[in-house]
Amino acid sequence: MDESTKRAIERGVAWTGPIFVVGYFLCWGVLGRNIPPPNMMAMTGEQLVAEYYSQPTVAIGMIGAATFGIFYTIWSCLLAATMRDESGSMGVLSLLELSGGILTGWLLAFCSAIWASCAVLAQQVDADVIKMTHTFTWIIFDCTYMITTMQMFGVGLWTVLNKRQAIVPAWAGWTAIAIGAAFIALVFMPFVTEGPFTVDGLWNYWIIFGTWLFAYFAVYNFYLLKHVYRSPDQQRIAAGFAMA
Question: Where are the domains of the chain?
């Protein structure tokens, strides 16, 4: 593949980051009525169906989210490729980032598809079955946090420890590590009905997802977009493979 084609592909893939954010926010958040999501742990099945799954846009939004979630995986593949060493090989940290990104994208799509099924079948099956499936999916969504933490630790440690690279500043790496570690609070979600650790709580929803989106994903997306628009020589210098 010639250099110009490779650069065009990388630039196109870099824009899957903003596409993911806009698409998932509109589908999962707005149409899917998840700003914030219903606190199902404090609701009966009948309440969940009446107050949430009665909304006609939920099924449409979740089907859309199942599509846009995979854009996160595509973006993560480019990030992993950027983390390769001078010989083109991927070390353990880039593999951690890639594995976490693939699984996170799958989780974003898979869970949305299950919620779409709940919305489609909400008036056809028992409300307690809908609540069980809805809750089961949220537990998967939140309590498998280590998938994304693995990704954030991988890219964060690479950013901090690779002193030669100038693609992403070290502070962004420390931020990624800190946010990834903070995800552990998500394990409290199934056991509480009120407070900051509920599914719609101050910590487990607004702070965790807010910092993940704006202090991690948006930051790395910005620097990745900046990097792919450099010339090949500038990219090598930024990666630490050549002298300025």
Answer: 3-238
